[in-house]
Amino acid sequence: MHSPPPTSTGFARFVPGVALVRGVSSALLRTEFVVAITVFAVLVPSAMAYGDLAGVTPVAGLYVALGAMVMYALFGTSKQVIMGPEATAAIMTAAAVAPLAGSDAARYAALAALTAILVGVLSLLARVARLGFITDFLSKPVLVGYILGATLIVIGSQLGKMFGITLESDKFFQQIVELISRLDEAELLTVAIGVVCMATLLIIRRVNRKLPGPLIVVIGAIIASAVLGWEAKGVAVVGPVPAGLPQLTIPAVTAQDVLALLPAALALTILIYADEILTSRVFATKHGQKVDANQEFVGIGMANIAAGFLTGFPAALSASRTTVCDQMGGKSQWVSLIAAALTIVFLLFFTPLLAPLPTVALGAVIIVASLGLIDIAAFRFLRQVRPAEFWLAVVTALGVLTVGVLQGILVAVMLSLIYVLYRISRPHDALLDDVDAAGGTVYRGVADKETALTEPGLIVYRFDAPLVFANAAFFTERLEGLIADAGPGLKCVILDAEAISDFDSTAAEALQNLDAELERSGTELWIARANGPLRELLQVTGLMERLGAERIYPSVRAAVVAYHEQIGHVK
Predict the structure, then answer these.
(1) How many C-beta neighbours within 10 Å does residue 47 have?
(2) pLDDT tens, residue by residue, 460-508
(3) Neighbours of 285 (CB within 10 A)
(4) Phi (first) and psi of residue 556, to 5 degrees
(5) 20 to 30 A Cα–Cα from 123, which one of 286, 302, 508, 514?
(6) H helices of 319-468, where?
(7) Cβ-based neighbours of 142, under 8 Å, separated by 6 or more
(8) What is the rounded distance in angstroms from the CA atom of residue 498 to the CA atom of residue 466?
């Protein structure tokens, strides 16, 4: 007999990474080592590029990756997520820091590091406040649309590399337009290398997904570039990488700097968390796993605090490296830890190795990996289930691509809430009719009934939602319509309240007005299948006293039988 696995408590709950040592095997480490090498090969040049994009020294991107990967592996709950430098966070950091730092490089670096630490502290405060519930507002349409938009942004960021052009635009559609307008500037050799790399990756994926395609392409590109002298022929390469490990440093800043950067840090915290939780949920669903929305704040927070103290800048989820990890078959955060160890070794001894690597090869790896995230089947599913959700996903994707990741998600969430309110305000309801069944008479909704009566003199009406201010008017209109169509012979209205789990003061007033109107016409209002909480609310609002406890019935059948005995005639 097997005992159940122990529940994580205390230190293990706060530091989920301690579970990595349980169940580890040489076979697992061998697999994760191969994946980590590929992630590392993509990491180094891209991290340096994002360091430059953030306005600090390129090597600072490697420092961010080093601290973020280790800390997230210890404190995060996703098995696939790779944290580190990322384009959007780098751009937002530069926009916030540059006006405060001026031309002082040392102050710029200190402010960038401070921004990362502030993001970390805000994330930890969000964990204390248990704000993980905000993920409940990120519905499947928002998730599907966001992933498409974010994937296209990643692909768009690599298009310049694929054609040997430095694109000025930072928005997807503008990048496409700019690229088309500048195709005459494309480096043909760069384009050819990119096409060959992408074709090789796609063929390897088709033949055997277990083969480390990105690693094969990166190594092959380095060798070919060194032998054929591609740099001399105009192909952009990674170039020299500075050696040495970062030092733990407390940024030299003032309280005024903290106040000045706080708004930007708050915006970055929201963006980084939304991006991370949406993507981690995608991979968790794909692999039948779960992520802890509140603990993710801790993972993000510790990753950013580490990045800040290592003289870096804010760390975020890397969609490209996470996708590469997943495509290569990464199963745990051992990939991050091994990649971090490789980064340390690389910084100390092997920085010259990546110098001849063509950046177009990295672009090809990132684009092919990102293509695997585009889920057309999910859009088809949404369209089949509910067209409105399909269009919500489309709007989310367009919002992310046009107005930005955070703004696009916020717009989509607002549209989701509006759609939910609309659905609540117009819920399903039904006029019930009796149907003979093996266990006796049951009452079901009918859509093709010629009359507005369940039977002569009686309406049995079901309302399939909580009765609140948003739908009280709809409820009243629907019942008043049935009552008007029933004509003067109506004697009783039975409300099937099984689905009415709650109602508020607006709904209570609507029921009171309805009962008063029915009373004036000599018609009684009864309620069937009211649950315990609803009965309490009826008591509190005074409706129980107004209707009379004898008019509350445990089932529709009991209410109909009582109607036959007291008012109507047995059919």
Answers:
(1) 28
(2) 898 988 888 889 999 999 888 888 888 888 999 999 998 888 878 888 8
(3) 13
(4) -65, -40
(5) 286
(6) 319-327, 334-345, 359-371, 376-385, 387-402, 405-425
(7) 278, 392, 393, 396, 409, 412, 413, 416
(8) 10
pLDDT for residue 447: 45
Rounded to 5 degrees, φ, ψ at 527 are: -125, 135
In the beta sheet, which residues pair with residue 460?
Answer: 494
List all residues 6 or more positions away from 50 whose beta carbon is below 8 Å from its beta carbon. Answer: 61, 64, 85, 86, 87, 90
Residue from 300, 407, 315, 318 nearest 370 by CA: 318
DSSP helix/strand/coil, 543 = helix
Residues 104-130 have pLDDT tens digits of: 889 999 999 999 999 999 999 999 988
Strands 458-463 and 492-496: parallel
**What is the C-alpha to C-alpha distance for residues 533 and 398, in angstroms, rounded to an integer?**
43
Distance CA 509, CA 496 (A): 18
Residue 26 tokens read as 């040489």
Amino acid identity of residue 283, one-letter, is: F
Cα(549)–Cα(553) distance, integer angstroms: 9
Q: How do beta strands 492-496 and 316-317 pair?
A: unpaired
Task: Look up residue 489 and give its DSSP letter.
Answer: T
Residue 288's identity, in one-letter code, is G
**CATH classification (class only), 426-566:** alpha beta
Q: Output the DSSP codes for 430-486.
A: EEEEEEEETTEEEEEEESS-SSS-SBTTEEEEEE-S-B-TTTHHHHHHHHHHHHHHH
Q: Are 113 and 313 in contact (CB under 8 A)?
A: yes
**Given strand 440-446, what is the order of strands in its sheet?**
440-446, 429-437, 458-463, 492-496, 524-528, 552-553
Alpha helices in 138-187 (DSSP H): 140-163, 172-181
Q: Which of 379, 377, 404, 375 is nearest to 392 (CA)?
A: 379
Q: Which residues of 82-110 are buried (b: 16+ CB within 10 A; e: fewer)?
A: bbbbbbbbbebbbebbeebbeeeeebbbb
> pLDDT by residue (tens digit) across 1-57?
333 334 455 566 778 888 888 878 888 888 899 899 988 988 887 788 788 778 888
Give the integer Cα–Cα distance in Å for 17 and 120. 18
H or E segment and range at residue 524: strand 524-528
Beta strands in 154-264 (DSSP E): none
Domain spans in the chain, listed from the N-terminal domain onward? 25-373, 426-566
**Exposed e or buried b per residue across 335-367, where buried means at least 16 C-beta atoms within 10 angstroms of its C-beta:** bbbbbbbbbeebbeeebeebebbbbbbbbbbbb
Q: For strand 552-553 and strand 316-317, is the pairing parallel, antiparallel, or unpaired?
A: unpaired
